[in-house]
């Protein structure tokens, strides 16, 4: 059943939202959106010691026939990894886990999501190019020392937005098609995600992942645009970055999957968006019967495309070099159905709006041995164009 009225009813100007809700849109399904309203309860984990009980409550809710919708912050990965158990988890500006327990969602037609025209938002990077280059050199030192092969270095940009987050999402989705994005408004903060990257999706015991690594700016004219997409496919650096993450995710999935079931379905596929081209690859597997939601997150989270490889060492370096906790950015937004369907994105092109109108939008890129600071910093700023319009 579709119903446009509930979406209009969610329009508001108060901050935080007048009532908790989650809106998810799967761009691969013709733009149909799922609206989750009036949660029966909220499941939050604000500290590492609360994570296990939060997962247990989530499992119990799905067994009781409820839907779960919400997000996991990037810093949850530090709480889940035993190697970090003796160290303090970086303080996230958002809960480590935030999920609402809902009844069945309403399906909204694409025309219910037609919002106002896009108005660019001014953003100020926390790091100048020189400040970025200093951290970049540290990453290169770690790479040449053999600690890692790749590090995904990120930083925040700050702006302001005092309007309706749903209207902002409406406007942005016209410019940036989403694989799996939406709005999560379960607490003080509101998360708006225009992610083109699917982290993992499972139906029964079949699971698929689609890492995204490798970026090229769009061309102004069709011949130039086609050449840039062709160059991305042939670029050795981009292929190496992509392949590293494919191998990382294959390894992560192998710990959860039936022996011999992990397969690469495609490599180096270019997906085109309004402002850039991105390289993706596909991986599939068959999960073991004993794998539940807690095991999925413990085995896969965070996605290797936002850390680097090897993952654990890259996360250590990220914690030391980055200037702020990532929060929901590089975490994941998703839903879990009573039938066992699980769908989560990689929360890139994702911004968080805090009370008072503070807006934080993070960007990042993968650094490998032949990267240059100037090119990587420029790539980061390109990835903010979905919001700045530049």
Automatic annotation (TrEMBL):
Domain Chorismate-utilising enzyme C-terminal intervals: 129-383
A GO molecular-function annotation: 4-amino-4-deoxychorismate synthase activity
Top-level taxonomic group: Bacteria
Family matches, as Gene3D superfamilies: Anthranilate synthase
Gene Ontology biological-process annotations: folic acid-containing compound biosynthetic process; L-tryptophan biosynthetic process
Secretion signal, residue range per the UniProt entry: none
Pfam families in the record: Chorismate_bind
Listed name of the protein: Aminodeoxychorismate synthase, component I
């Amino acid at each position: 059943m579709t119903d446009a009225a509930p979406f209009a009813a969610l329009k508001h100007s108060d901050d935080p939202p007048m009532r908790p809700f989650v809106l998810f849109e799967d761009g691969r399904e013709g733009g149909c959106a799922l609206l989750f309203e009036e949660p029966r309860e909220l499941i939050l984990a604000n500290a590492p010691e609360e994570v296990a009980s939060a997962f247990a409550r989530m499992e119990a809710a799905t067994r009781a026939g409820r839907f779960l919708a919400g997000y996991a912050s990037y810093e949850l990965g530090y709480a889940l990894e035993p190697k970090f158990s003796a160290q303090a988890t970086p303080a996230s500006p958002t809960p480590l886990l935030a999920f609402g327990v809902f009844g069945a969602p309403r399906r909204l037609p694409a025309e219910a999501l037609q919002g106002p025209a896009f108005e660019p938002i001014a953003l100020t990077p926390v790091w100048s190019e020189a400040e970025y280059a200093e951290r970049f050199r540290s990453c290169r030192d770690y790479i040449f020392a053999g600690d890692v092969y790749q590090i995904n270095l990120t930083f925040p940009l700050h702006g302001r937005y005092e309007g309706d987050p749903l209207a902002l999402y409406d406007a942005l989705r016209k410019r940036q098609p989403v694989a799996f994005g939406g709005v999560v408004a379960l607490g003080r903060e509101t998360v708006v995600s225009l992610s083109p990257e699917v982290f993992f999706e499972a139906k029964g015991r079949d699971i698929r992942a689609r890492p995204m690594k490798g970026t090229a700016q769009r061309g102004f004219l069709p011949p130039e645009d086609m050449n840039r997409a062709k160059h991305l496919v042939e670029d050795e650096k981009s292929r190496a970055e992509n392949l590293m993450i494919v191998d990382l995710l294959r390894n992560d999935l192998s710990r959860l999957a039936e022996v011999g079931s992990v397969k690469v379905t495609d490599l180096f596929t270019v997906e085109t968006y309004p402002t850039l081209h991105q390289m993706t690859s596909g991986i599939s597997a068959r999960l073991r019967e004993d794998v539940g939601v807690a095991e999925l997150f413990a085995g896969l989270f965070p996605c290797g495309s936002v850390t680097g490889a090897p993952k654990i060492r890259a996360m250590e370096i990220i914690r030391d070099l980055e200037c702020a906790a990532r929060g929901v950015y590089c975490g994941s937004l998703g839903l879990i159905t009573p039938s066992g369907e699980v769908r989560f994105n990689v929360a890139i092109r994702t911004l968080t709006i805090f009370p008072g109108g503070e807006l934080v939008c993070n960007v990042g890129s993968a650094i490998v041995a032949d990267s240059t600071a100037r090119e990587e910093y420029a790539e980061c700023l390109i990835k903010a164009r979905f919001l700045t319009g530049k």
